[in-house]
Amino acid sequence: MNNLLIVGQYVPTNSIVHRMDPRVKMLIIFFYVIFIFFANNVISYGLFTLFALGSTILTKVPRRFIAKGLTPVWFLIVFTFILHLFVTREGFVLFHVFGLPIYSGALEQGAVISLRFFLLILLTSLLTLTTTPIEITDAVESLLGPLRRFKFPVHELALMMSISLRFIPTLLQETEKISNAQASRGVDFRTGPFRERVRAVIPLLVPLFVSAFKRAEELAMAMEARGYRGGEGRTKLRELRVVKRDVAALVCFIVITAAALITRDYS
Amino acid sequence: MNRTGRLTASAMFVGLMTVGANISVWLPFLAVPIGGQTVPLSLQPFFAILAGLLLGYKWGAYSMGCYVLLGLTGLPIFADLSGGFGVFAGPTGGFLLSFIAIAFFAGFIMEKTAFRNRVFAAAFAGLLVNYLLGVTYMYGAMHLWLGVAISYKTAWISMLPFLVKDFCFSMLAAFFFSKVAYAFGKSKVSYNTSFK
Fold first, then answer.
1. CA B133 to CA B99: how far, in whole Å?
2. Which of A102, B71, B91, B173 is 20 to 30 Å from B84 at the Cα level?
3. Which residues in chain B have Cβ-Cβ distances shorter than 8 Å to A134?
4. Taking CB atoms and an 8 Å limit, are A167 and B12 in contact across chains?
5. Using an 8 Å Cβ cutoff, are B88 and B135 in contact?
6. Where are the domains of chain B?
């Protein structure tokens, strides 16, 4: 249960990547995710791998934290690779495993798709490793800013994100508390016929909803008592600013992407 | 309830979704052994439907959008405490995106129609949207980037056991809605469940 409460995986090392503008980091990752699908030969993949590995080294985050970020997807990566080995039938037969032929094309395609996955997950996990959740919400607000013109409540969404960051651990704790309280009154969450156990959902979740909405109401009142009137004319404590290192990172990314796009096969 | 109240309530729903995604911690019967492996089931569609019903279609959708965005940026708030871009790259990412649509459609039916039993219709619409988007995304993901050619029918069949579970729980959500509305009245939470 206690490990449920660890929200976020920020590792403070104060590297150059940590100090970068979170908007620039998000933009780079967004376009990286798109452009990596254009890579189709050794050089273009090599360039994208170089960029991902280079950024990883620059973050100075210890290796075990990076490995931890990758654990949930290892299975997917290995699974797609193995599936490709047996399903794809291109190229010539390399060897046999348990009587099944393994084709050279299968090995190649499996490796390429796994590599692409690995790079995608690696670079995207760097964002949370080097950026605090508050910086991320600030960046989301700023990046979605243009949508304000279409009456999309950008400010409200960003505020919701920061409020929920604060209350996710609280609500997890609350669920634990209610579960214990109801168990002490004799509600059985673990044994009994299936119907009875489904019914146990009600004494667990009704109090949870009530307490969550009570908290919401109190918070709303407290915000209004302090003069919150929506996003109109609101100033910020932390201002985001694009500085030299952000421009350098962007230029670096653009050069590598352009090189990869030039060297890919167009036939 | 005013705009600030709706905003904070929507933010709380992100927390509730996190609880719903990992509910098998507290309700161990939802961790079902399938093929020698325990698969923890989630109650996310149940909570997404309730988001639509309780917050209304607009704020319900914003709230779910906020949940998806936060998860996308890497917070471990999805099932099994996962999060990040990898979840969306996997075959089940469409179910996560569909939560926005679930809350929208469930809330829309609840707010804009007036027939009896519309709560159940709303819950059912939510379930439908959930699986239509989820399975189509899964099929697309398999073909476009996972490179596994399965037929659309196979994708549906593989999700059938979960569909049965979610059908039960979406109907329970409709039933649960009345319970919560009653409890709100008793505990003086001024949240408006009658949609005026």
1. 10
2. B173
3. none
4. yes
5. no
6. 3-188
